[in-house]
Amino acid sequence: MSDASINTETDPLEAEFGDFLALLKPRVMSLVVFTAAVGLLAAPVPVHPFVAFCSVLFIAVGGGASGALNMWYDHDIDAVMKRTARRPIPAGKVSRGDALALGLTLSGFAVVMLGLAANWLAAGLLAFTIFFYAVVYTMWLKRWTPQNIVIGGAAGAFPPMIGWAVATGGVSVESVLMFALIFMWTPPHFWALALFMNSDYEAAGVPMLTVTHGRRATRRHILVYTLILAPLAIGTGFTAISGPIYLAVSVLLNLAFVKGAVDILRRDETHAVADKYRVEKRFFALSLLYLFLHFGAILAEAALRPWGLGGW
Fold first, then answer.
1. What pLDDT, on the 0 to 100 scale, is given for residue 6?
2. What does the alpha-carbon distance between residue 103 and residue 66 come to, in Å, rounded to a whole number?
3. pLDDT at residue 55, as a whole number
4. CB 218 within 8 A of CB 257
5. CA separation for the pair 232, 60 (Å, rounded)
6. DSSP code of 6?
7. Contact 81/203 with Cβ under 8 angstroms?
8. At what angle do helices 49-73 and 96-117 cross, to 10 degrees?
9. What is the pLDDT of residue 8?
10. Residue-level pLDDT at 115
11. Are 125 and 178 in contact (CB under 8 A)?
12. Positions in the chain short of pLDDT 50
């Protein structure tokens, strides 16, 4: 067979382990692992370390499966956008069929194993999360409505609720608040990204808010969601999963976050383009720190609680 007859876009010999790992979106998976672990450890019911480890592992696998299914369906969009063009499928490293098979196999494995390791409520929540991300968000919302990030943010908000269900076998106000924290954080986080990556979304035909309503409207939406998020995040500081550490961290972070959103609102495109969206990029970076430190503070409160130092 001549070299010219080989299809380099789908030839399985081109794929390496790292390419299949990339399908699982490791950076997104790390957030899933962290927030799920916090939800599990913050719960009032102790979990055997081995069960906890296995449960978080299976939640991570489920999150990775969602990523593979997302890349399988979004191969055409990924090929157009600069920040995703080097992903395994558009780069010709992994075929769509292999990505689909990996995503479906890992989905079934993760859900069944979590049910066996922990409980079937947690497994059911994981199954719904995978479905929501792969079908509701990827196949429907992302391509049809500028509210894609608003509604689709639920997929990324479920992991701490799943972790809590692993420990308690149920859902509570605290787990709903952790869900809400991520859910309300997601729109300003992604809209800040969209402000300086708008050309990618335009080229791919994705109806991001910046494309359908313009950057000015997006800036207003960022401020509105940030103003809703701030009291929710700070209010969580008075619940059973929180304490003075969380409250202090949350107040400082939300003051900085609101200031960042106001700074973004005050921008005009002339200045934004001139300084290459420096303010928007800074807000996006702060949003990553915002979520990590909030959940890190919840984790710190849980770690100190057995010694009578955490919580109220």
1. 38
2. 7
3. 98
4. no
5. 27
6. S
7. yes
8. 160
9. 38
10. 98
11. no
12. 1-10, 12-13
Determine the pLDDT at residue 14: 65
CA distance 297 to 286: 16
Cα 233 from chain centre: 17
Q: Does the predicted model carry a pTM greater than 0.70?
A: yes
Phi, psi dihedrals of residue 140, rounded to the nearest 5° = -120, -70
End-to-end CA distance of the chain: 72
Task: Give the pLDDT confidence score for residue 20 in this predicted structure.
Answer: 94
The structural domains of the chain, with segments of one domain joined by +, span 10-170, 172-312
pLDDT of residue 9: 46
Measure Cα distances from 18 to 25, 94, 153, 167 in Å: 11, 11, 27, 33
Query: Which tens digits make up the pLDDT trace of 99-139?
Result: 999 999 999 999 999 999 999 999 999 999 999 999 999 99
**Amino acid (one-letter) located at 152:** G
Q: What is the DSSP string of 157-180?
A: HSHHHHHHHHHHSS--HHHHHHHH
For helices 173-196 and 214-235, the axis angle rounded to 10 degrees is 150
How far from the centroid of its chain's Cα atoms is residue 86's Cα?
20
Q: So what's the pLDDT on residue 306?
A: 84
Q: Class of 10-170 per CATH?
A: mainly alpha
- CA–CA separation, 72 vs 22, rounded Å? 12
Contact 242, 232 (CB under 8 A): no
* Contact partners, residue 37, CB within 8 Å, separation at least 6: 52, 56, 163, 299
Tokens 């509210």 appear where?
147
Residue 27: what are its φ and ψ, rounded to 5°?
A: -70, -40
What's the CA gap between 186 and 206, in Å, rounded? 17
